[in-house]
Design goal:
5-stranded mixed beta sheet; RNA-binding; globular; alpha+beta; 22 helices; 658 residues
RNA sequence: GCCGCGUUAGCUCAGCUGGUAGAGCAGCGCUCUUGUAAAGCGAAGGUCGUGGGUUCAAAUCCCUCACGCGGCACCA
């Protein structure tokens, strides 16, 4: 085709408002923006062409629907800003330290990271240097340009630059996919894009480098450890400030900090990953445990208790020894003292023990479903770097239960479980949760027919309850599909707590059976299920969800009665005694301190209710009620106030049946 | 487990390039009898995580280990 012929070819561009305009073929998003208005041309950051987000510099060669984006298109702008900030950071790093090797730098929630290979560790001072250099690059307003190269040229290019990670990345790009090379000014990176039009479109005052961390190359612990720098970026300085403020607020509800401040628990180096519960914390834990015990009992579960220390023979039989031996705490008796040599393990899970209980005595189909529950204390030798306050510990207690049932009973058991879990989460203050259904993996036991039935049972159960869910194909265990339940906390974070897992394997390995209607022996299914997961972790989630300001029924300290003058001490004691008689966790603060002091101290300790009593209250048989976080007080007759507090302190399940 | 950083009084933290430790709050004692987020005064409190090394001298520099923190990997 001649140049002249090319020039007269036209493409029809449909704009978001429906207008159709003709442009010469090969027109770019930038060109279209320029034709529409000067201001749009300046503000444009990218374009969507036929539903695909692209650079403004991409030529458009066929009739297309085109939308030009500016920084006002929040989702698109944030993605591009963070993406380009990652490139600008990598460029800044290489300009400061030319020997640093670059790898990858994707956009993540709230920001981006970029992994570097550098002999020297990055310091926090380095981050400030990099930020400064990034602002310089942004000020250059270097245009972003792109070319598609063939594979060999790209490989040679990166070999010449001594960028081995990029060579590897080029090799990973599937055949037939274009290899896009990008430039920010003179600096070059391998990237599929899209990008902003120039570096100046990253707001210089709305990004921040957050932290440095180690990360394995391609997430593989057998490969080199790189240095990862995390950054965050927004469209405006105020958005960045708001984000940093949210991080500070989240840090304030850190359960480790609140745990110390509210005297809930502590941990120490003689027992890493193990919790020392203090009186206040144990009160909270017990409120939760007592509640769960009642809920399980009412749902038809039988509570049992099984041993902590069990011979390795059982773990060999269950298959855990082979797979998880190095994560088990071993318990041995001194050879001289022991009559026989045995190797025991602290139980890492309850299920093999539960099968032992099931296996005692012959079971009939009439016994099924049999729901065995245990608040089972388990120990796992977790990797040292994985521990995190109460969220990941080595000694924990599950709200564990195993349901032994027939295949036909799976669906109704699953539906009943979801209903129970949903009610429990609601009582504990979590309105929203999501379900993930993990289905058959490549490598599995059992026939496809069985998998069809069991997966169908789980899906039907979910539909029955009407809960939102998504399917995660291939993510199930080799012995059965499972459901994971993720709840959302007060600040939008998700926590996977509940689980429901179908197991056809363990009953087989440990020889569980029942006599059916037909008089023959059959293998029961075993359903592993938990609602809270572990009490330790769930307590941590509760602390963070409520930021330590628990609803009255969960609060470790519910009511403090604080006399204003010592003449009110006897009256305060009477009120405390009356509340305690009704099960309310009340205490009197008879210290010789001003009421201001007492109010401040108990407020900081997050006691939900302070009852102040002075001469007037004694005289009139009233109390002055002050709620945590409120300035105002309310004076009420003591009997009425106590009746309301007693009602409010009643756990929700008991309140429903009262 | 891996990378980086950290560990000083009960808590929060100072302590620069080496000269054997400071503050606020809490706790303790005394005074104050108090009206809704800190009354006043006083005395006390630390083998500077562990073990080793360098040095005339180490909280400070080097090494080891432990634990913690931020990630990565792992999470039956």
């Amino acid at each position: 085709m001649s140049d002249a012929a090319e020039a007269i070819r036209e493409v029809r561009i449909t704009l978001p408002d429906g207008a159709v305009r003709a442009y010469p073929a090969g027109v770019t998003g930038a060109g279209i923006a320029e034709s529409l208005s000067k201001s749009l041309s300046k503000a444009a950051i990218a374009a969507t062409v036929n539903g695909r987000l692209t650079d403004l510099s991409q030529p458009i060669t066929e009739n297309s629907a085109v939308a030009i984006h500016t920084i006002r298109d929040e989702e698109i702008a944030l993605g591009l800003i963070r993406h380009d900030a990652a490139h600008i950071m990598a460029r800044a790093v290489q300009e400061l330290w030319p020997d640093v090797k670059v790898t990858i730098g994707p956009v993540i929630e709230n920001g981006w990271y970029y992994d570097f290979d550098r002999a020297e560790p990055f310091t926090t001072e380095d981050l400030a240097l990099i930020e400064k250099k990034m602002r310089e690059i942004i000020a250059l307003r270097d245009p972003v340009t792109t070319e598609v190269w063939d594979r060999d040229r790209a490989v040679r290019h990166y070999e010449a630059l001594n960028e081995p990670y990029k060579v590897e990345l080029v090799g990973m790009i599937p055949e037939g996919q274009p290899i896009r090379m990008y430039w920010h000014g003179h600096w070059q990176d391998l990237c599929r894009g899209p990008h902003l039009a120039h570096t100046g479109q990253v707001p210089a005052d709305a990004f921040k480098l957050m932290s440095v961390a180690g990360a394995y190359w391609r997430g593989d612990s057998d490969r080199p450890m790189l240095q990862r720098i995390y950054g965050t970026a927004f469209r405006t300085k105020d958005d960045l400030k708001a984000h940093l403020f949210r991080l500070e607020e989240a840090a304030k509800r850190d359960h480790r900090k609140l745990g110390r401040e509210m005297k809930l628990f502590h941990m120490q180096e003689e027992a890493p990953g193990m919790v020392f519960w203090h009186p206040e914390g144990w009160t909270l834990y017990r409120a939760l445990e007592d509640y769960m015990r009642r809920r399980l009992r009412h749902a038809g579960y039988k509570e049992i208790r099984t041993p902590q220390v069990v011979d390795r023979k059982l773990w060999e039989a269950s298959g855990h020894w082979e797979a998880y031996q190095e994560h088990m705490f071993l318990v041995e008796v001194e050879e001289e003292a022991a009559k026989e040599k045995r190797v025991n393990a602290l139980k890492p899970m309850n299920c093999p023990c539960h099968v032992q209980v099931y296996n005692q005595g012959l079971k009939s189909y009439r016994d099924l479903p049999l729901r065995l529950a245990e608040f089972g204390a388990c120990h796992r030798y977790e990797p040292s770097g994985s521990m995190h306050g109460l969220m990941r510990v080595r000694g924990f207690t599950q709200d564990d239960a195993h349901i032994f049932c027939t295949e036909d009973q799976i669906e109704s058991e699953c539906a009943a479980f979801i209903a129970l879990l949903s009610s429990v989460y609601k009582d504990l203050g979590f309105e929203k949760f999501d379900i993930k259904l993990s289905t058959r993996p490549e490598v599995r036991i059992g026939s496809d027919e069985t998998w069809d039935k069991v997966e169908g049972a789980l899906e039907n159960a979910i539909l029955q309850v009407g809960a939102p869910y998504q399917v995660d194909p291939g993510e199930g265990a080799f012995y059965g599909p499972k459901l994971d339940f993720k709840l959302t906390d007060a600040i939008g974070r998700e926590w996977q707590c509940g689980t429901f897992q179908v197991d056809a394997q363990l009953p087989e390995r440990l020889g569980a059976e029942y006599v059916g209607e037909d008089g023959d022996k059959h293998r029961p299914y075993m359903l592993h299920r938990a609602i809270l997961g572990s009490f330790e972790r769930f307590t941590g989630v509760l602390i963070e969800h409520y930021a330590g300001r628990f609803p009255l029924w969960l609060a470790p300290r519910q009511v403090v009665v604080a006399p204003i003058v010592s003449q009110a001490n006897d009256y305060a004691d009477q009120v405390v005694m009356a509340l305690r008689a009704k099960g309310v966790r009340a205490e009197a603060d008879l210290r010789n301190e001003k009421i201001n002091y007492k109010v401040r101290e108990h407020s900081l300790a997050k006691v939900p209710v302070i009852l102040a009593v002075g001469a007037r209250e004694v005289e009139e048989r009233t109390v002055s009620i002050r709620r945590l976080g409120e300035q105002r007080t309310e004076e009420r007759p003591v009997d009425l106030a106590m009746a309301d507090l007693i009602a409010e302190a009643t756990p929700p399940d008991l309140a429903r049946t009262a």
